[in-house]
Design a protein that fits this description.
Number of strands: 0
Distance between the termini: 46 Å
Order of helices and strands: HHHHHHHHH
Number of domains: 2
Number of helices: 9
Largest sheet: none
Radius of gyration: 26 Å
Shape: elongated
Structural class: mainly alpha
Helix content: over 70%
Length: 232
Amino acid sequence: MTDREIDEALEKAARVPHEIPAELLTGIGGAIKPSLRPVRLLPPSWVLTAGLVVISAAVAFIGAARVGLQGVNTLGYSACVLILSSLLILMWLAAEKVVSSWIPGSRNRMSAAALLVVVSIALLSVFGLVFDDYRTTHFAAAGLACLRAGLLQAVVAAVLALVLVRRGLAVNPASAGLVAGVLAGLAGVTMLELQCTNFQALHVLFWHALVVPVSAAAGAVTGWLLARLRNN
C-alpha cells in the first residue's frame, strides 16, 4: 500500500459519520440531570477581602484580650498608630492575594513569594523605626514563647479564613497555602503587638517578625500535602 492509498483511506474514514445513538444520549442526560444544582455566586472580591481582614483582626484582638492588652497600652500613641495601621494595610494586601488565589482566572499583581518578601521587609522596617532598645535579656526563652503564641493564633486565623473562601478553588494549592499562611501570620503578629511588653528591638525584629515566614512555610507545605492526597 502506497502513501497515497493510506492518505485516501484515512480521509475516507474521517468522512464517515460516527453517530451516537439517541437512546445513549438520553440515558446520559437522565443520569446527570438529578445531580445538577444551581451555583450560588461568590461575593465580590472586595467583600471577601474585607471579610478576611475582619477575621484576622478580630482573632488577633480576641487572642490578645484574653491575656491583656498590655503592649498597646504601654506603647506611645504614635507608635501604636504606626504599627497597627501598617499591619492592617499588610493584612489587606495579603487578603487580596488570598482571594485571587482561590478564584481561578483572577488577576495576580504579585507572586506568593513576592508577597512574603514585601510583608517581611515592611514589618522589619516598621519595627526598626519604633523599637531602639537593643538589649537581649532572655532572648531565646522570651522569644520562643512569643513565637509559639503567635503561631497558635495564626492557626486559628487560617482555619477561619479557609471557612470563608471554602467555595473557591485553589489552582495552585502550595501557593494558595503560602499566602493564607502570610495572612494568618499577620494575625499572630498583631496579637503579639497588642499584648507583648517586651520592647527589645531584636526580640520584636526576630521573634515577632518570624511568625509570618514560619506560618507561610507551614501553609505552603499543608497546601502541597493536601494536593498530593487529593491526586492520589
